[in-house]
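Notebook entry, structure prediction.
Reason for the run: the old model in the group folder had no record of what sequence produced it. Starting over properly, with the input documented here first.
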Amino acid sequence: QVQLVESGGGLVQAGGSMRLSCAASGRTFSTYAMGWFRQAPGKEREFVASVNWTDASTYFADSVKRRFAISRDYAKNMVWLQAYNLKPEDTAVYYCAARRGSLRFESWTRYDYWGQGTQVTVSS
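New structure, fully documented this time:
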């Protein structure tokens, strides 16, 4: 049983930074891509970033390039999303997700496993 558990959300002031963590368990993820998505109230779930579990290559949504970073620790089965210069429009529930294969899919429907989400609120 795959489990993804996010942590690290909360209230942040605009211009601040934040790091979200995702603990993965339940299988070997060597052929997987790990992604972060977010969903604001009344909006569709939106791709943020992804990382290849094996070679740590990364892929970002245009809206967060140069502000967000994604990384993983292969041995610890951990994935992190680091965000800088946060804006009120970054407010959302952030989800960790996993899919087998390429990290370059931005549709949430292409991901197989999901965490429960963690709320991030950016105040202006």
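Summary: The longest strand covers residues 92-100.
The old model has been moved to the deprecated folder.
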